[in-house]
Design a protein that fits this description.
The protein is an all-alpha fold and about 170 residues long. Helices cover about 95% and strands about 0% of the residues. The longest helix has about 140 residues. The protein starts with 7 loop residues before the first helix and ends with a helix. The mean pLDDT is about 85.
Length: about 170
């Protein structure tokens, strides 16, 4: 018996055993195997469908994210523009307020200077009047001896006093 050239009996029994094993596998094994392959195929198909749906959702989320980022950029730009405008308005208002305050202070200072000047002029006039009265008193005492001198002196003083009150 050689392995390269088997005998007819060996081939016969091998065919019978193969047929029996094939029948048992076809009856019990193949349905289970095909059922498991079909289940696996269905599981793979449902996983692929779920992956496709997840990919579509991810794409939609990416588009939504891009839209939200763009909206955020636009909102940021708008807010920055409004802030810049508000800053410029505040600076302008502060400049105007400062100018108005400076003008008010200047006017107040001018008014105070005018009041002080008038007060100083009045004080000087009083002092001059007092000195004039003192000088006149001294002159009058000196000239009281002469009667003609007294009358002319009194007339002159009255004229000067009336002129001073008119000014």
């Amino acid at each position: 018996m050689s392995l390269i050239t088997p005998e007819f009996g060996l081939i016969f029994w091998m065919v019978i055993i193969f047929g029996a094993v094939f029948f048992v596998l076809a009856k019990f094994g193949f349905p289970i195997i095909t059922k498991m392959v079909d289940e696996r195929n269905e599981h793979i198909s449902s996983s692929l469908r779920a992956a496709d749906e997840a990919q579509k959702k991810l794409d939609a989320m990416a588009q939504e994210q891009a839209r939200m980022v763009e909206e955020t950029r636009l909102e940021q730009s708008r807010i920055l523009k409004e802030a810049s405008e508000a800053r410029e308005q505040i600076i302008s208002q502060a400049k105007e307020d400062a100018s108005a305050e400076a003008a008010k202070i200047l006017e107040h200072a001018k008014a105070e200077i005018a009041v002080e000047r008038e007060s100083a002029i009045r004080d000087i006039r009083k002092q001059v009047a007092l000195i004039s009265v003192e000088v006149a008193e001294k002159i009058v005492r000196k000239d009281l001896d002469k009667s003609d001198g007294q009358i002319s002196m009194i007339d002159r003083m009255v004229d000067e006093a009336s002129k001073a009150q008119l000014n």
